[in-house]
Amino acid sequence: MTDDRREGIAPEADLDDAAPSVGVAGNTRLTSLTATLLLALFILQIASAVGFALLSYNLAALGGPAYDVIRPVHFFVGFLLMPLIAVKLLSTGYRFGRYYTGNRAYHDAGPPRPVPRLIAPILIASSVTLFGSGVEMWSFQNQFGYAWTAIHNVSAFVFTAALITHIAVHVREAHRHAAADLAGTPITVAGADPDVSVHEPLGGAVTRRAVLGGGLAVGAVLGVGASGFPVTSWNFLQPLRPGAGAFDFPVMNYEGGGQQVDVAAWRLRISGAVGAPLELSEAQLLALPAEEHRYAINCVDGWTAVRTWRGVPVAALLRMARVEEGFGHVLVRSTSGYFWDHASSHMLARGALICTHIDGRRLNDDHGYPARLIVPGLLGKSLIKWIDGLVVGHGGPENLVGPHLDFKNPIISGHQLPSDPVGRR
């Protein structure tokens, strides 16, 4: 044994042999650290996605404070994940590339195991599709029949299944390597003296922490800018933001698109499980006692607008129609054919209105003239514009899973309720 080895410094020849193996170990640690961080964020993101799904599929109403948290967290974490996923893909891709191009050290470390080799393409493709479609929907481009809703939902299921398999294969190994790196345990090289400190190329642990820290910093900036969470005024990336005017907030249109209603022929009809079906003209609706309530309308695309809404309480109209006792839901439809099936509790809630005015001004065409639904705490996509019908029924409201997963009918549609001839594009 030479003096150099006794002093804890590997001879030059040993370093030359060891350096490639150290690179493999360093790459493994970077991948494991990134994966551990991603796992924690994915758990949070999947939890928020479940909340979104319950709302979007009409399976539960997590309105009010719950929705005010679910939506911004989903956008924030989604954008935060993007640079970290890029780090993970680059780290893993580098290792695969070095192996398949015949690098000795990476080749000696062994090939990817069969299951990860099969799962990796599915995981990569589904993640790119999932986040790409999410950005497309967030940017408010998913209108008028584009299939982004179905693409996003289907890719979410595929990604989650592939991710669970990927975690099951790698979790123990990733935890071991990440824990060793965080504890400052030095990398050792097989066959070398364990008392010898091995120098890592490219800065070693310092570089790994810088890469992860940089990814987190970039992701945090993207997340705050895209979601306005936790500081609303920092939402510099949001493509649509409401202004101060009564009608100065974005409009999302489904199915038949924007409507210009022939108000002379238009009627608001209340039918179904009622004892006295109603049919009201615009003048008759405006003559009924009205209420005003001030609260926010929240869109799934990320914006929020607080306005004063004036209209006739839905509960009052249902009483006028002598709604049957124990009714369970009210299907609210638009002249465009779009609809949403609301639970009875939504319709009886304080502040649930057939709205005719916003901030004291009569509705315009873009915002639902002659009447629209507004209910505090519910997501905007369920607050129907250009209302012409309320159909009361017993039992629970229709869940809307199918339309979200149907590429031929990618958004919640009026496939059972054709557009009304009084509504024109």
Write the topology of this structure.
Elements: H1 3-6, H2 12-56, H3 65-100, H4 104-108, H5 114-138, H6 148-182, H7 204-227, E1 260-261, E2 268-272, E3 278-280, H8 282-286, E4 291-298, E5 304-313, H9 314-320, E6 329-334, E7 339-343, H10 344-347, E8 353-358, E9 361-362, E10 372-374, E11 387-393, H11 401-405, E12 423-424
Parallel strand pairs: 2-11
Antiparallel strand pairs: 1-12, 2-3, 4-5, 5-8, 6-7, 6-11, 8-9, 8-10
Helix pairs in contact: 2-3, 2-6, 2-7, 3-5, 3-7, 5-6
Structure description:
This protein is of the alpha+beta class and 425 residues long. Helices cover 46% and strands 14% of the residues. The chain is built from eleven helices and twelve strands. It has helices spanning 3-6, 12-56, 65-100, 104-108, 114-138, 148-182, 204-227, 282-286, 314-320, 344-347, 401-405; strands at 260-261, 268-272, 278-280, 291-298, 304-313, 329-334, 339-343, 353-358, 361-362, 372-374, 387-393, 423-424. The strands form three sheets. The protein has a five-stranded mixed β-sheet. A hairpin with a 2-residue loop joins strand 8 and strand 9 (361-362). Helix 2 (12-56) packs antiparallel against helix 3 and helix 2 (12-56) runs antiparallel to helix 6. Mean pLDDT is 86; it is low at 1-20.
